[in-house]
Structures are given as structure tokens and as C-alpha cells.
Design a protein that fits this description.
It contains ten helices and 24 strands. It has 506 residues and is of the alpha+beta class. A hairpin with a 4-residue loop joins strand 21 and strand 22. It starts with 21 loop residues before the first strand and ends in an 11-residue tail after the last strand. The relative contact order is 0.15. Keywords: 2Fe-2S, Iron, Iron-sulfur, Metal-binding.
């Protein structure tokens, strides 16, 4: 499970950790949000440190499809159904600034991109209305989209009953960009601490980050971790975690230059990667197909969903050998707009960003621009209008309804998980390679799995809110169906709102 982008990239090694050191700003997370924010601040003369549990681009930032686009499926029409036109325009303006930032950064740092046309298309008749609605919402918001003509639809490598198109978008190798940002950050004097897990964030008496290597102190802290790792503001209950998968293949036919995303289900994402934007100089053009989306921990088999995606790709395109497969996780806010700004109950000392809904390549730099503006102390009137509009949006009845619905699902899933776990007692048969099962031991759920020939047992209770974990048979992880925390077979925390790992039983 290695992304195409991670197969041949060289990333900086990081800088020595100095326990007890104080910085102007400490940023948790070395994805696009963290790196873009850090580069903005260090170039403003601030002393900035990044602390990352794993490596650069460890999670979503290094495992997406590399599409930089303002046409984002049916995002704008979904927003418009529940929010005023002014908020939709503000969202678009934020992403436009994010688009411009990331393309400028790529040009400055020598990261190649290719110019593409992005399409949101209908696979069948049921998607035609969605395409039309997205076209109208985009035009209302000021995006220069067009409806694809009959000749364009007929020439498409994917079946398109109709499509809205946006020219002059970009495709990129996201890991090459992240590596370049990290290198530029260190060269500007930033401190980059990789492989350093954070156990706690404190606000009083002064901002502090506790890590396995010792504490660090700061004037301000930025949480760029996908899901905030502190429960201040209860954002774990205001976003939903979704996983999706990608597969890359050697392409044996014509190389299509568009970027395609379906408006109807099942969602299919298609683009090519060439030597100019990510396939690598020694590699033939690649076809990247994405889909298999599902709420974290709430599907019978992640592997079966990926197999379905692969079968569709082979039936649809002239592809050869599969080269890479990977998955990623992102969060969608219940009000459909990313959360960016000051963390509640943090005395203004903690900033965070989450809820990009799989469009982080434009939302992440937009979040970085806003957070950096606030931390530099720029006056409100000096900031773009979208920062104020998004920061002061009101909660509308539809937001509340979505939140109530999602949290009702969480409650139902929690009850089902405990019921299923308690119905099966240990000992259980040793799982086959790559498989895992949950049973109860002394009325407590236990997860038993076999990976790389080793059988392990861990507590199957998520340390965040007590949800019973589910086995992910594609990635061999324990996933929480409540709020999307994830853990290795050994119980080590991977991501999500949980701040601790699982208790190892054997």
C-alpha cells in the first residue's frame, strides 16, 4: 500500500530535536497545511518548528490524486443547496487563492505541473441533473465553467452522458511538492522534527507540546493533523471521516489529458500521470483511478471495494500491470465548509484546520494563508473578504440536521459494535494472513489479527470515545467507526482524534 508519488521521492531528513526549546509557533503535522503555514511564517521572520509523528506527507497530503482544481465534483452545488450565495463565493475565493498559492510555490520550487481540463460528469441519466446543478452553482459563484459539447463528450475516454468542464487546472505529484516545501522551510531556518509523536497539547500556563522526546514551548500552536488531536470545541463530532482508494496502472493506449470525476454513484476519479507531473522519468504514463469511498470503519470489506474499482478500470481503459495501490482519509464538516481558525477554549493560542472533504490541494494552502495572516497579526481589513465570511458563517438548520443525523449514526454504530463483540467469546480461531476479528474476553472487546505471519491481540476499544474497532482488510488496520481513529495491528495510533494507542494484549 504505497502511493505512486512515494515510490521515488527524496525528502529532507529533518533537524535535531532540542527538548525544552521555545519557538514562536509550533505546527503539528507535516502535510500540506502544516508545511504551507510553516513556510509562510518562517519567511515572515518567525521561529517555527514542525512536529510530525511519521514522515512528510504521511497521510492524505501524500496520498491523493494530485488534482489541483476549482471544479470539485459537486461541491459548489452541495454548498449552494444549504447556504447563501455569498458563502459559496467565499469558499470559491478561498480555493482560488489556494490554487494560486500552490501553483506559484510549484513554479518557484521547480516542481513540474501540467495544465488540464477538469470535468465533473454524469455516468448515467441520474447524474445529468447533478451536472446541470453544479454548472449553475459554479457560474453563480463566478467560476468560468462550461458545458461540454457533443464532440467533447464523444471523444472522452470515460463515458460521459453530460459534463461541466473547467479549463486551465493543474495536475501535480503532491509528494514532490511537499518535499520541496519542506526543503525550503528548513533552508529558511525552520525546525523539522519527523518521527516524533505528540502525546498532549497544553494551553496553560503557557502553550506546550508534550512529545515522546520531551516538551517544546511556543507562543502559538497550529494543529495541522487532519482531525484535531484535542477535544476542545468537540470537532470530532462536527466532521465525518471518509476513506477512499486509488490504483495506478501502466497505460497501454492513448494518454487522455483531462481530469475526470463522476457526479453520480459509484464515484470514479480518473487522471493520468506522466513524467511531467508525477509518473517519474523512468516510468511509462500511468492511469490513476480513484473511488471505493466509504465512512471509516463502516463497510464489510475494504478489499472487496478496491477489487470492484480495479475491475471497472480494466473494463474501461487499455491498462497493463497494476503498479501501485493506496488509500487516504479526509474529513467533511457537517456544514460542508472547512473549519479554519482559532480553537475554542484555547485563549487564542491554538489554531487548527480540518474538513477539506478531499479537496486539500486548494483548501490546505487557503487555510495556511488565513492562519498565517492571523498569527502575523494582520488587521481584519487587510485580509481577503473570504476569510471574514467563512470565519463568521452562521449555523443553519440544515447544518444541525446533518449533525444530528451523523451523530445518530455514530450512536447506532457504537451499539452494534458492542453487541457484535459481546456475542463472540475468546478464544477464537487464529485469523488467516491479513485477517482480523473482534471477540470478547471478560466482557471487553478484543481484536485478534494476523499480519506478516504474526498473530497479535489488542484491546478493540477506541481510547477516544470507546467505540468497538473494525478490521480493515485492505490496509490491515483497526479502524474506529465512530470518529475515524485508526491503529496498526500492534495498536499504534495512525490518525484520528484518539491521542493514544491501543493496549497490547499479546
Amino acid at each position: 500500500m504505497t502511493a505512486l508519488w512515494k515510490s521515488d521521492v527524496t525528502v529532507p531528513a529533518g533537524t535535531p530535536f532540542e527538548p525544552g526549546r521555545r519557538h514562536d509557533v509550533i505546527i503539528l503535522g507535516a502535510g500540506l497545511t502544516g508545511l504551507a503555514t510553516a513556510l509562510e511564517l518562517v519567511r515572515s521572520g518567525m521561529d517555527v518548528a514542525i512536529v510530525e509523528r511519521g514522515g512528510i506527507g504521511e497521510l492524505a497530503s501524500g496520498s491523493n490524486t494530485g488534482k489541483i482544481s476549482l471544479l470539485q465534483g459537486t461541491t459548489l452545488s452541495s454548498l449552494r443547496r444549504h447556504h447563501p450565495a455569498s458563502l459559496v463565493r467565499a469558499y470559491l475565493d478561498a480555493n482560488r487563492d489556494g490554487f494560486e498559492w500552490i501553483t506559484r510555490a510549484a513554479d518557484e520550487l521547480g516542481v513540474s505541473t501540467t495544465t488540464r481540463t477538469a470535468y465533473t460528469h454524469a455516468q448515467g441519466a441520474e447524474g445529468v441533473a447533478a451536472v446541470t446543478e453544479e454548472y449553475r452553482a459554479a457560474r453563480e459563484a463566478g467560476l468560468d465553467v462550461r458545458l461540454a459539447g457533443a464532440d467533447e463528450l464523444a471523444a472522452s475516454p470515460v463515458h460521459m452522458a453530460s459534463a461541466v468542464a473547467l479549463d486551465d487546472q493543474r495536475a501535480i505529484d503532491p509528494m514532490s511538492l511537499l518535499a520541496a516545501l519542506a526543503t525550503a522551510f528548513v533552508a529558511a531556518g525552520g525546525r523539522l522534527h519527523l518521527g516524533t509523536a505528540v502525546s498532549r497539547v497544553r494551553v496553560v500556563p503557557r502553550p506546550r507540546v508534550d512529545t515522546e522526546a520531551g516538551p517544546l514551548f511556543a507562543g502559538k500552536i497550529v494543529l495541522a493533523t487532519g482531525a484535531p488531536i484535542t477535544d476542545r470545541g468537540l470537532y470530532f463530532a462536527k466532521v465525518s471521516g471518509m476513506r477512499s482508494a486509488c490504483v495506478s496502472f501502466d497505460l497501454e493506449g492513448e494518454v487522455p489529458d483531462g481530469m475526470y470525476l463522476s457526479a453520480d454513484s459509484p464515484t470514479r476519479s480518473v487522471r493520468t500521470a506522466t513524467a511531467a507531473d508525477g509518473a517519474g522519468p523512468e516510468r511509462s504514463p500511468q492511469l490513476i483511478v480513484g473511488g471505493a469511498g466509504h465512512p471509516v470503519g463502516r463497510t464489510d470489506s475494504e478489499l472487496a471495494k478496491l477489487d470492484e474499482l480495479i475491475a471497472w478500470a480494466r473494463d474501461t481503459f487499455p491498462v497493463g500491470a497494476e503498479t501501485h495501490r493506496w488509500s487516504a482519509q479526509d474529513y467533511t464538516s457537517h456544514n460542508l465548509v472547512p473549519f479554519i481558525g482559532s480553537m475554542p477554549r484555547s485563549l487564542g493560542r491554538v489554531r487548527f484546520a480540518t474538513g477539506y472533504a478531499k479537496w486539500g490541494l486548494t483548501n490546505a494552502p487557503a487555510a495556511a494563508l488565513r492562519i498565517a495572516s492571523e498569527l502575523r497579526g494582520e488587521k481584519m481589513r487587510e485580509r481577503p473578504t473570504w476569510m471574514t465570511v467563512i470565519g463568521t458563517r452562521l449555523t443553519v438548520p440544515a447544518d444541525l440536521a446533518r449533525g444530528v443525523s451523523e451523530n445518530a449514526k455514530v450512536g447506532a454504530v457504537a451499539a452494534q459494535g458492542w453487541t457484535a463483540a459481546l456475542a463472540r467469546s475468546t478464544p477464537v480461531a487464529q485469523p488467516a494472513e491479513g485477517e482480523g476479528t473482534v471477540a470478547q474476553h471478560h466482557a471487553r472487546p478484543v481484536g485478534v489479527s494476523t499480519v506478516d505471519g504474526q498473530t497479535r491481540a489488542v484491546s478493540a476499544i477506541c481510547p477516544h470515545m470507546g467505540g468497538v474497532l473494525e478490521w480493515n482488510d485492505l490496509e490491515c488496520t483497526w479502524d474506529c467507526p465512530l470518529h475515524a481513529s485508526r491503529f496498526t495491528p500492534d495498536g499504534e495510533r495512525i490518525e484520528g482524534p484518539a491521542s493514544a494507542g491501543l493496549r497490547r494484549l499479546r
